[in-house]
Structure formats: structure tokens, C-alpha cells
Amino acid sequence: MRHDHAPGRRVTRRGLLAAAAALPAAALLPGCSDGRRRPAGGRITLRFQSLAWQQDSLKANKQLVAEWNRQHPGIRVQYVQGAWPTVHDQLLTSFEGGEAPDIIHDASDDLADFAYGGDLADLTALIPPRLKRDIPQRSWETGTFDGRIHGVPFLQEPRVLIANRAKLHRSGVRIPTPEHPWTWPEFEEAARRLTRGTTYGVAWPLKEPVSATLNLALSTGGRIFHRRRDGTVEVRFDAADQRVPRTLHDQVNVDRSASRTTLGMGGSDTLPGFFAGRYAMVPLGFSYRQQIAQQAPKGFDWTVLPAPKGTALDQGVSPQTLSIAEDCPYKEEAMAFIDFFLSPPNMVRLALGDWMLPTGQEALKDPALRVARYDWATGTALADSLRSAPAQSVRGYPEWKDKIATPGLQEYYSGAIGLDILRKRLVEDGNLVLARYQR
After folding, report:
1. How much is the pTM?
2. Which has more pLDDT, 22 or 126?
3. Cα–Cα distance between 143 and 140 in angstroms, integer?
């Protein structure tokens, strides 16, 4: 990994960053210059690539950029629109071509190869003390690779159960709460009881099955990825790892309490069937509440339930992150913008815009995120149970996911292969993939 700036030099500038948003722009200008980005008059331009896409989120992002530019005329931030489905390949191309954005919006589980490859700046000594204190260590771990922070985590979402409230009450099942969630056996029993006539108890949208499987498996102690003493990673698929996949498989193929047709769907694809009463529950990310609130038929009564609990309520998350390109010549100024962007009031605006939870503890206390409407309070109650997803720092994870785990889990959940074949693929074939990245 490249380190163009000595750590000691960065430490001496931390005082600058603590009050960066309040300082005059001229005080932040570095001694180096870059003719490509420094127009006449001394003003510098930082390119910020955002992946915001929902209307409220786009509005919040663009408003914050405009506010920064009004307050800092010497450091202009240029908003650049990116897209979640193409961001990994787009960043690969831009890094290789030397045209990467200065400030990069991504997800923490997409950062490993860029971090280890030297494309992302080491932010460890650049992060202002206020921001470092506000975000808990369990969240910082999601953006940390080989002991260095390469991404500032700022928005996250638990996976929850979105349920038809009328069907829940008619079934007589116990309604779970964050304080008293269902266990996995209780969830299986509830799904069976909710399966009536043409209604399935649950619909699992598993077009992208890997993150859902790995992150929920954390509740049963499953990790799948295990780091050896020498720092290398191996894939295992032991009893704790198998508990959640076996539940999903059995609901589809044994109990018939889960719909087979939704296995190839994305989350949004299941909503028409949910509204029509074909499924009583759908496991989705917390942010799907926005689509449901906007699209549900008038009078449709829905509620948010916590995901089932195993040995713990823990689940893995891959927060949205902000990073700085290693090639950015104005890293201190870029971090000053990130510090402004992620101040507690601004983090609340971003969370409300994306219908997600902020990582910052001060923002999480905001009353707007703790109301009963749209079950915001249920989500905030789950914030302490969110942990770094097991695959976060694994080199080669994207290839393992795409070539090994996705097809393997899809076949297993559909009943095409059994658990032994799935285990052989995930472990034996998977470790061959990871070995190429760990030589």
C-alpha cells in the first residue's frame, strides 16, 4: 500500500480538522498545488461522488454540498452522481486511469480490495477527534483494513421483518419486540401459523442471497470467514454457520411456509405480492419502509418486527461509507468536508433522507429518529446490535460471492442441491478463490 504522506505530518494537522468547518478557506489550503484542479484565484475543487438515489436522499446530499460551498468559497465541492449497481467497476476503472473522485461514497463491504490495493487514503490520523468519538468502535471496524481506517461509516440499516399487521393478529402469534424478539424456532413456528390458503408466512427475496445469509448468521454465532493467526482467512461452514441457511431452505422445501417464487426476486419485487396478501412477512432492509409507505394501498396496515434472535440479536451490517482517494492532493480539505457532512444535524438529515440509521451516537438520539410513525423507534432500538459484517475485510470476497456463494446458495435454497454439496462448494472451492488473494 502506498503511503505518500508520513504519519507524523498528518498528526500535526489534526488540530486543523477539529474545527475545519469554521475555519476560513485560506487557512486550509496546503502548500502543494495541482494545476489541473486549482483555477485562477486559488480556489480548489474537490469532486464528491455520491450514490444517493432516492428523492429525499438526493435532495439532502445536494443541499449539504451547496451549504458547504456557500460557507467555503475557497474549497468548492463538485457533486458527481454515481450509481450503486456499477460503482465497483466504475471505481476500478477510475483508479486505474488516475481519474478517481476525491471523496468517494460506497459501502464498507466494497472497500477491501481498494484499501489493500492502495487506492484509498489511510484516514486514521486525519479523522477529527469529534467524529472519531461520535461513531462507536464497532462501526469503525467496518471501515478498518489491516489496522487502518479507509472509510468513515455513516449510514446503516438492520435487516427487519416487514409484516402484515392484520394477518399477525389473526394468527395469534406473539408479536416480537426489540426487547423480546422471536428466536429462530419461534420465527419458524410463526411462519407456519401465518401460512394459510394462498398466503405464505414469509417471502425471502434472495436474488442476492449472500449478504442476507452471512449477516443474519451472525445471530447464531456463524461467521463463515475465520482469520488464522498469520492473518490469512479461511472459509468454514460449521453448525453455527448452517443454522440460518437451513431455516431458509426448510421453510421453502419442507414446511412450505415460504414462497419459492420470491427466491429469485429483489426486495422491491416482493412488495406487490405483500400488498396483495400473498405473503404475511418479508425480511427486508430497514430503508424499504420508504417504498412501502409510498406504494402501499390506502388502509394497508403494516409493521416492523426485529429479525430473529439466535445466541444473540446481533446481525452484520455493511454501512455506507465516505473515503478519500489516495491520489487526492487535498486530503485535509476533503476530510474537512466529510466532518461537515457528518455533523450530528447533517447526519440526521442524511438518515431521514435514506430512511436508514446514522452511525453517530449524537444523531441517533435525535427525536425525529425515535418516533413511532413508520416504526423509526424499532430501528433505533436495534442499533446497538449491529456489528461489522463477517466478510468486511476479506480480500477476494467479491469473487467468492459472485462465483461460489451466490450460485451455491441459490441452488440450495431452491432445493436443487443438499447441504453437503453446498458446504463443499463454499469451503473447498471458496478457499481456492481466497488463496489467490493471500499469496
Report:
1. 0.87
2. 126
3. 6
